[in-house]
Amino acid sequence: MAMLMVASFANAQNSSDDILFTVDGDPVKSSEFIRVYNKNLDLVKDDSQKDVDNYLNLFVNYQLKIKEAKRLGLDTVPKYKKEFESYKKQLSKNYLSDNKVTEALIEEAYNRSKEDIKASHILVRIDESERDTLAVYNQLIDLRNRVMAEGFEKVKGQVHNGTTVFAEELGYFSVFKMVYPFESAAYATNVGDISMPFRTRFGYHIVKVDDRRPSRGEVTVAHIMITGKQADTLLDPEVRAKEIYKKLKQGENFESLAKQFSDDKSSASKGGLMSPFTSGQLSSSEFEDVAFGLKQIGEVSEPFKTQYGWHIVKLVNKKGIQPLENVRTEIENKVKHDSRSNLINIALAKKLKQQYAVKDDAKKLDYFASILTPDFYNRSWEIPQKFDASKALFKLGNSTVTYGDFANHLKSAQKIYVGKTLSHKEIIEDEYNVFQERTVLNYHEENLENENEDFALILKEYREGLLLFDLMEQEVWNAATKDTTGLKNYYAAHTTDYMWGDRIDAVLATSAKKSDIEKVKSYLKKGLSDDEIGKKLNSENEQKVIFTKGIMEVDNQSLPKHLDLKKGLSNVYENNDAYHVLLVKNFYKSEPKTFDEAKGKLTGDYQNKLEEDWIKTLRQRYKVEVNNNALKTVKKQLTY
């Protein structure tokens, strides 16, 4: 709240005309600096960057890079322009909506999300532009009667051909899984009933609803994952997962075993705990089915395989459907990118027509109907020679939509009417509505940057961010990776910055019982190998010990932080709710990493050095002048 008050005060007190600094004469306003500072304040981890002077230095560097990117013409590169226009179009969708219609669609989608539907359907394909559909409609009526009398399976076997007629079982689905008209028809049909024929862009359908079930809601689980790709080629992921499962059946702690053995590092440290998810949210349906299939809190699954490896899942929590306010943003985004967005476009276009005071003239439409000829139905119609293309069709804001604009639209639309029998007047009425809606929405979209400040600011950030990425890639990142000589010279001068920590080559034995680990220790003293010990203690039904071996750093998650490490056999110790003994074969003191071993971090450090030198060059190329009076005002406002 305090920061919001600071931002509000700052914007209120600072004149939009105050120039904080210039880069080669190009002004940057105080208001822009204050907005960016407040927006990024919570993201800055380095407290020194929260200092206004330090942040101003970073902001000046940012503006220098943008200036350099434009000098190099990166904003004119076709790839950049294409990517920017694509983002602009995508972003604009969030601002091109009618709020009342959008809200109604959000609530409808939310209510539908509470239920899954199992359905079958029959589709007769027809072209999306086809108007004469009575014969197909009647065909679907006949098929509907047959399904009611003979059953879906019998009719499916007789009519499905995979080209013009499709009869399919769809399984369970929920909101946003089907095109909107199909979804609406399915949700409007009772279990056991068959809908009347309805149309989508694919053709005419009937849908039979076989079942409805409540949605599965949200689930929270913990898991132990053994990845399918192991560094230790002798470790079989399936065998390891089943070994761990045996230990769970013996009563060992799930969270402790996850910390000890799970290869999912993002959850292992938290005892395997994952973030809550809903059905369809993960990229593995197998994992979801197992997770949602667990009934009791604390229930643990048997080991199962997905494309990621082997898993054991424990149910932590289950929730029903979330309140609308918790999922509103997600649903709204889906609504605006779904086929139901057409309803929003129609409502918005109607509102914009009033906003821009667009006036229609029926006489002008009659004129266009009069100039169509039979050639229109075979895609050979041409605009008449004496046609006045510059004449105004209607005014739209500060622009004029001309006869020529609509005539060109009609020429493009001819392909829709090949072989059709609609009258000229019907064609003009339909195409004028399509043309006007598209024109009004396009005009609004093109002028969004001037009409909507929020949109303009986001677009500016992306425009500059995209430029900055291309510039950094060209001047720093690629330069560092290609400059092998420079990289090696930097490594030679900073070798002590790239060191291995202390490491051990060891065998680690883990068991739930102290008595079992004592046996392991005695066997190790006698010189038995881990395989030999495993055969003595483990059986098909009981997993008493698990071995982990190889070179590991002394801060490995399997080792306690203050273990006294030395060559030979350790004492028995307790960690992660289990007992362990460690056989250290060799000890490797801290030593420099080789060039190849250090290359990842080394490249990043070298990139930082290149960037520092490059910024110095930009400071020499472009003159930066700071308005100290404006800076004092900014500091007072930001520390108010």
Describe the structure in brief.
With 640 residues, the chain is α+β, with helices and mostly antiparallel strands.
Give your account of this protein's structure:
This protein is an alpha+beta fold and 640 residues long. It folds into five domains: 2-71, no CATH class; 115-214, Chitinase A, domain 3 (Roll); 218-320, Roll (Chitinase A, domain 3), CATH 3.10.50.40; 356-449, no CATH class; 503-588. Helix content is 49%, strand content 18%. The strands form five sheets. Strands 13, 14, 15, 16 and 17 form a five-stranded antiparallel sheet that branches. Strand 11 (392-396) and strand 12 form a beta hairpin. Helix 20 (484-493) crosses helix 23. It is flat. The two termini are 13 Å apart. 22% of the residues are buried. Mean pLDDT is 89; it is low at 1-16.
Domain module count: 5
Looking at the overall shape, the CATH architecture of the largest domain is Roll
The CATH topology assignment of the largest domain is Chitinase A, domain 3
Report the average pLDDT across residues. Answer: 89
The share of residues in helices is 40-55%
Residue runs with pLDDT of under 50 for 5 or more positions: 1-16
Radius of gyration: 34 Å
The total of beta strands comes to 18
Shape verdict: flat
Number of helices: 24
CATH class of the largest domain: Alpha Beta
Q: What share of residues are in beta strands?
A: 15-25%
Q: How can the largest sheet be summarized?
A: 5 strands, antiparallel
The assigned structural class equals alpha+beta
User: How widely separated are the two ends?
Assistant: 13 Å
